[in-house]
């Protein structure tokens, strides 16, 4: 299968170089560090220009329902299901391109927090003055995890929910007490310059990976260029760029 994908990428890139187009991508924000790298490499190889508009899962679903134009969609399964139900994606082009885990974020100047085990994470949640997470797929999982750890009642009064992962980082960076936040590991690393740091990934026993799929949109205005980008992201070169940006291979 890998050989077939590699050959397909080579053929598509060769054809793409003859006619450059703009490829509009609607993408989940968690894959941004890897996708930006892959898009830049794809542009250099083909001459196409990749224009990406990032958003959370709920934002992407709303854009799809509003019939926003794009050529390629990169999103978690729930959004893909919405897109398929609306007839917005070509299901034959859908494929997994990577996955992203959840991490714990602290203010850069905050004292270290032990989050290596579920028990340690539970204690950290109880000790925190504020617990920050978003309303997107990552935050929805954290909400369930807090219940699973048996601290929902204790966390409820000190939980702060945001619309985006970046807003989580902003809230943590602007804090002054014992705040703890949760977000995609890729976003935490990408936004470290805001004054935050990755305390660690969720403990392995409770880690949650969100898998991201790619698909062509049925109303694409640049279907050939979109197909070339999809093939590139699935191929060896695209996967290397995605992984260099922190997006793990899909399993």
Explain how this protein is built.
- The chain has 251 residues and is an alpha/beta fold.
- The chain has two domains: 2-100 and 210-244, 3-Layer(aba) Sandwich (D-Maltodextrin-Binding Protein, domain 2); 102-206, D-Maltodextrin-Binding Protein, domain 2.
- Helices cover 44% and strands 24% of the residues.
- The protein contains eleven helices and ten strands.
- The chain has helices spanning 2-16, 32-46, 57-65, 77-85, 118-127, 137-148, 152-156, 165-173, 185-190, 223-234, 236-244, and strands at residues 22-28, 49-55, 72-76, 95-100, 102-107, 130-134, 159-162, 179-184, 196-201, 210-216.
- A five-stranded mixed beta sheet has the order 2-1-3-10-4. It has a five-stranded mixed beta sheet with strand order 7-6-8-5-9, with helices on both faces.
- The radius of gyration is 19 Å and the shape is elongated.
Summarize this structure briefly.
This protein has 251 residues and is of the alpha/beta class. It has 11 helices and 10 strands.
